[in-house]
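Consider the subject:
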Amino acid sequence: MTIQYGEDLNELIDTITRAVGANDLTTLATAIAGPPTSELVVVCERLTEHQRAVMYRLLPKQQALELFEALSPALQSDLVRGLQDAEVANVFSELDPDDRVWLLDELPAAVAPRLLRGLSERERQMTSELLGYPVHSIGRRMSPEYVSTHLGLTAAQTLMRVSARLDDAETVYTLPVLDDGRRVVGVVGLRDLLGADDEQLVDALMRTPQTIAATAKAEAAARRCAENGLLALPVVDSESRLVGILTIDDAIRILEQEESEDSARQGGVEPLRRPYLSTPILKLVRSRVIWLLVLAIGATLTVQVLSVFESTLEQATVLALFVPLLIGTGGNTGNQAATTVTRALALDDVRPSDLVRVLTRELRVGSALGVLLGAIGFTIAGLVYDPRIGLTIGLTLVAVCTVAATIGGIMPLVARAIRVDPAVFSNPFITTFVDATGLIIYFLIARAILQI
């Protein structure tokens, strides 16, 4: 969620920074007494780890717990490192089991046993069960705190079950209906229960359920929940027995994280998983340097191509003027295709089995784009320089756009087929590949037309 803020919030951040620096706890306590939790979340995202921990300690207990729950898991992890053991145990015990797992995934593995020991037996068991599911599965993100009902119960009996669990249930708006074997046979909404006669059976009110296996990918489950407009999606084991639920707010949280990771990787950086201003400089450097090294090594292909065709450039130096245009157009065309297909993969619009269909479509799209751009290039270059130069540029644009769109379209599908993140495999590598390939095409066409 994006919070709009202006001078008032900036002044609050400055006040907190100065108060922490001067160890003026009275001024700090006064400054943070008024703002709502939503504004304090934004403040936390712009403070250092030490400043955040000092501010947190001065908040009233209830507001401190609300603030901790509202922070991203990465910032929660930072805050845990800045608090005393007793404070950590207190906030950790107040979290929902699924939120605890989010936090534990950010913390060093050695910390988890110590935090789990401080929980009650019931809370520890629920949290441990979630931790037992594979990383990135929806079982690790679901909530085990749900309200269910059973076949044969009346609307009044079900509402009594809801009332008894109001304080600890994740949601009460959608209730799974179970049979005697705890298998999900339907779902019923709270609205339907409230509008029904007290003695009406749940059997008559329930509708066909949508469920997801606990071992399914978290992103796939979240997208299914969001796309179908479900307030809650029952999560089941291999025998269709209910083990938890995924609520719409948790689904949106998962999708936001996945979108952030995909956007970062398409740009050639590792995802930060935390607000930019609260990310240490060293982490920013680490998130970028590996990709820069990989792409720099890949760019040597372009240098090698230029060295091979050095004699061609010497005989027609005008060709060098168009090199940035051609490789830039090719890279952009490939990235457009890769981004479109990667998005389609995320939405399950296409699958690796659709490779031939995607290849055919991108071949047609690329050639159409190439013809349009090539006609413009032929006209301008032909008028300014020479018709043969114009023809070289025009034909190269047709070929480069066709190749770039085709490669860009199938790369994400190939990545998915070999179980690599399509976002990682696509844009940075496509740019490097298309640069080298585009230059080879360019100089081969130039040699043929200019006879050099």
Observations:
- Residues 280-450 form a domain with the Tetracycline Repressor; domain 2 fold (CATH 1.10.357.20).
- DSSP finds 22 helices and six strands in the chain.
- The mean pLDDT is 86.
- The first strand starts at residue 149 and ends at 150.
